[in-house]
Amino acid sequence: MTITTLDTPLAKPLLDWYDRHHRDLPWRVAPGMAARGVKPAPYRVWLSEVMLQQTTVQAVKPYFERFLKRWPEVTDLAAAENDAVMAAWAGLGYYARARNLKKCAEAVANEHGGIFPDTEEGLKSLPGIGDYTAAAVAAIAFNRQAAVMDGNVERVISRLYAIATPLPAAKPAMRKKVALLTPADRPGDFAQAMMDLGATICTPKRPACSLCPFRGACEALKLSDPELFPVKAAKKEKPVRYGAAFIAVTADGEILLRRRIDSGLLGGMTEVPTTAWTARIDGETSADAAPFEAAWRASGTVTHVFTHFELRLSIWRAAIATKVAVDDGPNDGWWEPVTNLEAQALPTIMKKAIAVAIPLAFKTSKG
């Protein structure tokens, strides 16, 4: 959402607070740097915003730095092998982001000469960029007066105006409030200030209201209990799905892996053979569903919580004297040394499964 309001009264105290208390982040041009003429790099802003969706700052930092070291420019990322990008992303979760990241880099490199569009509308024309990311990149990288609202900003806005409508129904009203607050001057710093305020002061529990630059205007504080906001609709209980994973290991220390199809959950990632579980249906859980006959032994279970369901996998392990040729349709397998597992695009659930069957797998992996 782009707006045309003049500077708003609440922007100045927030920006003053941000100038003194901003977080130092590897993708950020801090106020002091900006005063020296340093400009935000759109590639770095975009990369960080994609990584930060549904993920904490602390989790993102090492991934961001590794990506930049390996692919310092968007054109480098565009030219990278898909499997290399997926492997570098492994562990960050929400793997559709990695697939869209690669597609977006290719579009910027091939259709825009390696230069990101500098408007919300232009950014939204790129693969994988929605309203939030377009607004964030437009504001932070290009100083466009765009309304940026993530989870931290939602919390700040809901308390500032004591918005009683439960989330997610309250989001449109919240976005309008953010639009009215966003100043024409320093909109990128304003957006980052709102995020920092929510992350460090206006926290979910025990907010430090006495330190908040909005304390004189905050409606929730006047009601004496900011923790009542944001109001959230009652959560539905997550369904539990079941399946099995099969860890086959040769005498010389190689493990059977395969690649998941590009679409759907964990699309394009590497996995050990598993049964056909999804978010909606259970898979087989017994050794009868193994990819080939062997002396499969039960090794335990692992549990992993996805956004919409919980998965419980029964783990089966087999010691294989000689490699078995595996023809599994679009999921053709291959044998990979256990010492090289860290270099594979294994999501967390697969690492958990392997670690149950081979406890030292990731301690001996060379990466």
UniProtKB/TrEMBL annotation:
Short name of one Pfam family: NUDIX_4
Cofactor: [4Fe-4S] cluster
Cited InterPro entries: A/G_AdeGlyc_MutY, DNA_glycosylase, Endonuclease-III-like_CS2, Endouclease-III_FeS-bd_BS, HhH-GPD_domain, HhH_base_excis_C, HhH_motif, MIG/MutY
Gene3D superfamilies: Helix-hairpin-Helix base-excision DNA repair enzymes (C-terminal) (1.10.1670.10), Hypothetical protein, domain 2 (1.10.340.30), Nucleoside Triphosphate Pyrophosphohydrolase (3.90.79.10)
PANTHER family referenced in this protein's UniProt entry, alphabetically: ADENINE DNA GLYCOSYLASE
Function: Adenine glycosylase active on G-A mispairs. MutY also corrects error-prone DNA synthesis past GO lesions which are due to the oxidatively damaged form of guanine: 7,8-dihydro-8-oxoguanine (8-oxo-dGTP).
Full protein name: Adenine DNA glycosylase
Organism of origin: Rhizobium laguerreae
This protein's encoding gene: mutY
